[in-house]
Amino acid sequence: MREELLVAVLITASIIILVTWVYPVTADFWSLNSGWNGLERLSSQYKAVFSPIRDISLLDPRNYTLFIIGPTTPFTEEDAIAVKTFLRRGGKVIIADDYGSANQLLEMLDLPVRIEPGVLVDPLLNIGIGQLPITYWGNKRVALNYAAALNTSRCSICRVFLWSSPFSYLDLNNNGAYDPGEPKGPLPIGVSLNVYGGEVVVIADSSVFLNSMLDRESNKELLNYLLGTTRPAVDDSHWQSDTLVRFKEFLESAYKFLSLPEIKYSIAITSPLLLVAFSRKIRKI
Fold this sequence. Notes:
Elements: H1 2-22, H2 40-45, E1 49-51, H3 53-56, E2 64-69, H4 77-88, E3 92-96, H5 103-108, E4 114-115, E5 119-121, E6 134-137, E7 140-143, E8 150-151, E9 159-164, E10 169-171, E11 188-195, E12 198-203, H6 219-227, E13 231-235, H7 243-258, H8 261-284
Parallel strand pairs: 1-13, 2-3, 2-13, 3-12
Antiparallel strand pairs: 4-8, 5-10, 6-7, 6-9, 9-11, 11-12
């Protein structure tokens, strides 16, 4: 009876692991999401590291650039201290957000730039609809996806590098049409500023480096420019927790660990011995 129960448990666990392994991840931004709203391409093509801010702050800024993309959960004082630590070591921090959640961190860092409410619309220059506007990085075009705009009125140290076109406007009530009083373009979309010995870049769009946007216009060229010779280190501690993603990440880490030559060969040597010992124990039961 015990032997049958053990076999049933092992079979059930194997089925759960198999189903989880093949089930696609659809949560926004996660590295295992190969759909339109994921960052799988950033992960695979740029060998990005996904980790909490406090762990990333310990990485060498000469080799890594910290990315904070689309945060949806609150920041803590410890997070702000970790970002400042990374900057003081000469690091670069990219903050990409269009909902304003990152404003909390910008305030904690005492940075005089904010993400404005509303959706950036360009009825003339876009990649299909006005909410997918074309913006300009010098003479290069960068495509955005339901972006916002930045308030730089108090930021004398901000260098604007990404502008919307003169035909754009900020749709404050999200009705898809221009209303009197809504800010008109050109509007600042991306800025950089030197603080704490490092550099902070703020972009009013969390989608610009998604799988579906990376090959649009000059988006990949902008990413390469921002990275220089470094690799992306992406904060994954300010997205809504996803059980499927976390379990798949655990399985992937376990697979990589078990694939190490020393681990693989050790298992190959010890498995027959363990199997024999286990079989004898089952017979006694």
